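User: Some background: our group keeps a shared notebook of sequences we're curious about, and every so often someone picks one and asks for a predicted structure to add to the entry. Today it's my turn. The entry only has the sequence so far, pasted here. Could you supply the structure so I can complete it?
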Amino acid sequence: MTARSAELFSGLVAPRVEPGAESSGSEWMRFLRDRLREKHIDAHQVCTVYVPDPHGTVNAGVAVSVDSPGDVAVGDVFVSVPTGVFAVFTPTGALADPIEDVWAQVEECVMSGSIFRAYKEEVEVVTNTGEVELFISIVL
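Assistant: Of course. Here's the predicted structure to add to the notebook entry:
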């Protein structure tokens, strides 16, 4: 468990997604991550920020971290993730795909009652070298 400071992101939107390995590993999400890497060549990592709305829909912002709203690229969306407490997941090697691995860990922890998801903004980080970190918002 860790606290994350507020963070701003600039990127592209994938509307109405179900957070998890299936959507994150989809061709569509891979395309968006690749497109962002082309736009932001110097970016070390691309994040997928899952943002729920009041109607129960979740939209994903495939984005890079920025310092201020003025740094948002023309044509990109702006996503703000507030300060919060998150469970952190990294691949254990149990599954060959690191994205599947972290999401499987989340499902297992939720099912066992080890964590209680807050269903607020959640952040999946994928570095250019393929390392994955997943931050799931939790209720303490």
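Suggested note for the entry: The CA atoms of residues 18 and 58 lie 7 Å apart. The longest helix spans residues 98-112.
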